[in-house]
Design goal:
It is a single chain. The protein has one domain: Rossmann fold (3-Layer(aba) Sandwich), CATH 3.40.50. The termini are close together. By secondary structure, it is an alpha/beta fold. It has an eight-stranded mixed β-sheet, with helices on both faces. The chain contains ten helices and eight strands.
Length: 259
């Protein structure tokens, strides 16, 4: 199976993309897929969630910034399970973009692509988690990705930011000669229930505007998800499983779209 690099992209902070990265990493491993999470977000939310889930000590000697700085990610891979590994996030990743920008390297946008190509181990899926900003780090993540899913939240500010992100992606893909495919739009309901009239109108409007690009399955706010990021992912209680089932449905639809 050819390795697939997946990125969930949004320019709005706090939309839940790090949570999605952690949960989809967990779910892919549960499906017996070989998966690597590369946490490029300095907040390291997805790293924290995986470490809590599997009771992994915070090994600060392994982190993505060191791999980017050294030009080799292999020594930064932290094995969590037989088929699950992460390259942990680091607050120091904030330092990388200014360093690379100052170097004025013509190939600066493909640094991550080359580092991923040189990872010695074979993973079925590599999930990237990036901060919600437009800089050389997010550009590297986009160029390194095969498949990009955009996140659309049910807030007024999200529509304008989503349009900005979509515009950036279209222009960037053309000017950078990137090969990623925008494979879909994931609706995020950050408030209220799925059946709430305002949320149903939001979904109707989103599908009217963006058509089949919008996923049929939806992520909606559940308190249990906050527990996952703080205390680790669990499948023990009924509410745990309900939240996991929601993400599993979205993941299944994404995997169907990317083939």
């Amino acid at each position: 199976m050819e390795q697939k690099v997946i990125l969930h992209f949004d320019l709005k902070a706090g939309s839940g993309k790090s949570t999605m990265a952690a949960l989809e990493t967990y779910l892919l491993a549960r499906m017996k897929e070989r998966v690597l999470l590369i946490d490029l977000d300095p907040s390291a939310v997805s790293t924290h969630a995986i470490q809590k889930t599997f009771s992994i000590a915070n090994d600060t000697s392994k982190n993505v910034f060191q791999g980017l700085k050294d030009g080799d990610l292999n020594s930064q891979v932290l094995d969590v399970q037989e088929n699950l590994a992460i390259i942990p996030g680091s607050l120091r990743t904030n330092l990388w973009s200014p360093i690379v920008t100052a170097a004025n390297d013509d190939d600066a946008g493909r640094i991550l692509t080359n580092l991923i190509a040189n990872i010695h181990r074979n993973f079925s899926y590599i999930l990237l988690d990036v901060p919600a900003r437009w800089d050389i780090l997010s550009m590297n993540a986009l160029i390194a990705s095969n498949f990009v899913f955009l996140l659309l939240e049910n807030q007024k500010s999200s529509f304008s930011l989503f349009s900005e992100a979509a515009h950036h992606l279209a222009d960037f893909r053309e000017t950078s000669d990137a090969s990623f495919t925008v494979s879909g739009i994931v609706p995020l309901l950050s408030r209220g229930s799925l059946t709430q009239p305002d949320n149903q109108r939001f979904l109707t409007d989103a599908r009217a505007s963006f058509g089949q690009a919008v996923l049929h399955n939806v992520i909606w706010n559940q308190e249990r998800i906050k527990v996952f990021t703080d205390e680790g992912i669990s499948a023990k209680a009924a509410w745990d499983q309900r939240a996991l089932d929601m993400y599993q449905r979205v993941l299944n639809e994404e995997l169907t779209r990317i083939g």
